[in-house]
From TrEMBL:
Co-factor requirement: heme b
Organism expressing this protein natively: Podarcis muralis
Name listed for the protein in its UniProt record: Sushi domain-containing protein
GO molecular function: heme binding; metal ion binding; peroxidase activity
Lineage: Eukaryota, Metazoa, Chordata, Craniata, Vertebrata
GO BP annotations listed: response to oxidative stress
Binding site for heme b: 417
Transmembrane segments: none
InterPro entries: Haem_peroxidase_animal, Haem_peroxidase_sf, Haem_peroxidase_sf_animal, Sushi/SCR/CCP_sf, Sushi_SCR_CCP_dom
GO cellular component, one term: extracellular space
């Protein structure tokens, strides 16, 4: 199904998922057959089982290399960012828990697993019922945000896809009894279906009794496999991405994916682009390997005469095809990455393709950090919360845990789902409805890269994103029916409900309820109707919530948080401001490669980086000629628009990255024929050109006292000189750190 398309893990993630699930299932079988597993398995047996399943490898400590280049560039998977805790923020590790997990059995089963169980004297409401009775809003009944455009919403999703992705179970069938999660309505791991309440407007009268839902994969060392850590621990979930804002949605979070996304035909540090189509001469994302059936053709009418089978795009994040808005940003930043790499090559022809790639990735990461923390976060948190949670940067703090918290990924940063406009505007050069390719309903943009290929490229969509208003969150207008009734709506298949999915995922992950998180943030709790009415500033919502949940103690954190009134000049309430503010502070202060951290960039480079704007990135990588200076804020055309050639908007000057090979204590860097090089402190690292092989050392060092270089230089020879004792071509030895 379409939901599984963007949950499909990469090879490294797949290994972690399979290991955890195999271990979890095996131990669960032992527990059922012989209640106390130690009666059946010795400690040696358990260790052997951990090795065989692969869980032991997932928990094995890693050793960080200590070289100049690993100090200079991030690892692709986020490891060793923190030298004392090398796995903090790394891909394929467990989310952080800011509060203990809250499972029905105290260990693994989500709340609602046993539907007859009560909490604080009340049964939990079905998540589809909560969605239908509180969140569901007709598309035509939404209110629009008078301050912000839909690009603000789009940026939130874009940056979220840089920070977290939870892989679901690799299996869609229960090992215990063969229950198929796609069809069965019984709770059997990994199946946790969303039950359809009687009287449901869309589904209650039909034969469908549930929506499929597959639990998130456990993490090795938690749940049934936690005995490996020496004590039983509640089930945890994996983040398959690096936590850091580092451009992983562009470059990937694993070595295998990063290699697939690169262009190795020339040593220029470029990303691969589409070889079949372009967008008016500008590159598009490359196609993924074709699948049958093609998941990116399921949303179009295959009976049309011109219905070509356009494959999905491929990018650093597997959700790049989710809808047209996110595809646009993926395309823009692919182009920007290649534009920067090309400019850096012109400035530093001595740099190898690998160094060009790493330097470009480093610059792009800084761009994302600056735009997000300077332009996006303050608009969401408001001035007071921004000042409280994000004081001026004071440097890297290795004691700060930068991992994404479970509550952030599973609830808090999903706040923006209630700000999504149910229509996707496509506008012409005058920012009016495009007559050739008019605006469409949001569900028509899901998994449809063919629209970019066949319907005018990314420019009409981009104009719509920066000119169309975001949806405004109100107590009576929460989530449009495009998302509650038509999510991932393929032909002849059941569409899903985003609100119900969010609530079910929170229970799957064992998130504590609304009151517990208000207590965590030092905010007053709701114990009565009067308390809840006061906190939400809405008797309507308080009544609706208590009618379903019975008591404030049972309210799911996501619905409670988005129900709060917005703080002044903010787009979230006080609980979300706390949870988001804490996370963005940890991501900044706990990142050794944060752009402002001393030594990451030179003072001149930091001065240039601070000039970056999303305005300029869009101008440089599209056919647009005029844009509002702040693409997140509402504007009027043409009075508020600025020419892309205007000197009013500052530009980043990449000349600050020019490297002077003569500026060393030992004089000019010795040249090696057939090799690129990069300076790193007192060392120079050489990499042979494609088609050449290296003899001798890979680097030389400047002896500062003697002011002399190492006497032995490497030699790069053509492949015709190849000997068995020599390594492969340098192009294969990419430093994916």
């Amino acid at each position: 199904d379409l939901l599984s398309v963007f949950k499909h893990p990469e090879a490294e993630t797949n290994a972690a998922v399979h290991a955890a699930e195999l271990m979890d299932t095996t131990v669960e079988l032992i527990r059922q057959l012989v209640y106390k597993r130690e009666k059946l398995l010795s400690g040696h047996d358990l260790s052997t089982l951990a090795e065989v399943t692969g869980c032991a490898a997932q928990l094995r400590p890693i050793k960080c290399s200590d070289t100049c280049l690993t100090e200079k560039y991030r690892s692709i998977d986020g490891t060793c960012n923190n030298r004392k805790n090398p796995l903090w923020g790394a891909a394929n590790t467990a989310y952080a828990r800011w509060l203990p997990a809250d499972y029905e059995d105290g260990f693994s089963a989500p709340k609602g697993w046993n539907q007859s169980k009560t909490y604080n004297g009340f049964s939990l409401p079905l998540v589809r019922q909560v969605s239908h009775e509180i969140l569901h809003t007709r598309n035509e009944n939404i209110s629009l945000d008078s301050s912000y455009t839909h690009m603000l919403v789009e940026w939130g999703q874009w940056i979220d896809h840089d920070m977290d992705l939870t892989p679901q179970s690799a299996s869609t069938v229960s090992f215990m009894d063969g229950t198929d999660c796609s069809h069965g309505c019984i709770n059997r791991n990994p199946c946790f279906p969303i039950q359809i309440p009687a009287g449901d407007l869309r589904l209650g009268g039909g034969t469908m009794k549930c929506m499929p839902f597959i639990r998130s994969s456990p993490a090795c060392g938690s749940g049934q496999s936690s005995f490996l850590q020496g004590q039983l621990q509640p089930r945890e979930q994996l983040n398959s991405l690096t936590s850091f804002v580092d451009g992983s949605m562009i470059y990937g979070s694993t070595a295998s994916l990063a290699r697939k996304l690169r262009n190795f035909t020339q040593a220029l540090g470029l990303l691969a682009v589409n070889q079949e189509f372009s967008d008016g001469g500008l590159p598009l994302l490359p196609f993924a390997e074709k699948k049958s059936p093609n998941p990116c053709a399921l949303t179009r009418d295959s009976c049309l005469a011109n219905a070509s089978d356009v494959p999905c795009f491929v990018a650093g994040d597997s959700r790049s095809n989710e809808h047209l808005g996110i595809q646009v940003l993926h395309t823009v930043f692919l182009r920007e990455s290649n534009r920067i790499a090309t400019t850096l090559h012109q400035l530093n022809p001595q740099w190898s393709g690998e160094i060009l790639y790493q330097e470009t990735r480093k610059v792009i990461g800084a761009y994302l950090q600056i735009i997000n923390w300077r332009d996006y976060v303050p608009k969401i948190l408001g001035p007071e919360a921004t000042e409280a949670y994000l004081p001026p940067y004071s440097g890297y703090d290795e004691s700060v845990d930068p991992r994404i918290s479970n509550v952030f990924a599973t609830a808090a940063f999903r706040f923006a789902h209630v700000t999504i406009n149910p229509f996707l505007s496509r506008l012409d050069e005058n920012f009016e409805e495009n007559p050739s390719h008019p605006s469409i309903s949001l569900h028509q943009s899901f998994f449809s890269p063919w629209r970019i290929i066949e319907e005018g490229g990314i420019d009409p969509i981009l104009r719509g994103e920066i000119f169309t208003l975001a949806k405004l969150q109100t107590a009576t207008q929460m989530m449009p029916e495009e998302l509650t009734e038509k999510l991932f709506h393929p032909k002849k298949a059941l569409s899903l409900d985003l609100a119900a999915l969010n609530l079910q995922r929170g229970r799957d992950h064992g998130l504590l309820g609304y009151n517990s998180w208000r207590r965590f943030c030092g905010l007053p709790e709701a114990h009565t109707f009067s308390d809840l009415q006061h906190i939400l500033n809405s008797s309507y919502l308080a009544h609706k919530l208590l009618k379903l949940y019975g008591t404030p103690e049972n309210i799911d954190v996501w619905i409670g948080a988005i129900a709060e009134p917005l703080l002044p000049s903010a787009r979230v309430g006080e609980l979300l401001a706390c949870l988001l503010g804490r996370q963005f502070q940890a991501l900044r202060d706990g990142d050794r490669f944060w752009w402002e951290n001393e030594g990451v960039f030179t003072p001149r480079q930091r001065e240039e980086l601070a000039k970056v704007t999303l305005f300029q990135i869009l101008c440089d990588n599209t056919h647009l000629h005029h844009l509002p200076a702040d693409v997140f804020s509402t504007s009027h055309f043409p009075s508020d628009f600025v020419s892309c050639k205007s000197s009013q908007i500052p530009r980043v000057d990449l000349a600050a990255w020019r490297e002077d090979s003569a500026d060393t204590p030992c004089g000019p860097v010795p040249l090696v024929e057939g090799a690129h090089y990069v300076q790193c402190k007192a060392s120079v690292f050489f990499e042979c050109w494609p088609g050449y092989i290296r003899e001798g050392p890979s680097s030389i060092t400047c002896n500062v006292e003697d002011r002399e270089w190492s006497t032995v230089l490497p030699v790069c020879r053509g492949k015709t000189y190849h000997r068995k004792s020599l390594g492969d071509s340098c192009i294969k030895n990419v430093m994916l750190f």
